[in-house]
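Final report, Chapter 2: Outcomes

The project's central promise was a pipeline that accepts a single protein chain and returns its three-dimensional structure in a standardized token representation, suitable for archiving and comparison. That pipeline is now operational. To close this chapter, we reproduce one record exactly as it appears in the project archive, with the input sequence first and the structure output second.
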Amino acid sequence: MSLIVLKDKVDEESVLPLALTFKDEDGAVMTPTSVKWSLSEADGTIVNGRTDVTLSGPPYNLVLSGDDTALQEADDNLERRLTVRAVYTSDYGSGLKLNREIQFYIQPLVNVPTPTAPP
């Protein structure tokens, strides 16, 4: 269950609001001691400098901006990966790690400018 796939595409240069809920190993909603996230293309290339961004909460509301969903090149990979890493404490110990990845695709729009690929 580490990969979550969003079925709807995100329009190019549009925001993507996400409300995150964290559950422990027993399925109970919990509050992590820390949460960080990174945004990358499918090959791991970081998008828009978004690496190890701290997310405060609760609530854990993460909003990707239009810069995060902009295409970087005319032949840009339309797949994005949002990696969320949380640390929490439960009956099983402290400093426990919970990692999830959210996959989504960007829908290019005809009238949104996309940089031209070099010849």
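Archive annotation: Residues 35 and 78 are 26 Å apart (CA to CA).
This record, like all others produced under the grant, will remain available to the consortium after the project formally closes.
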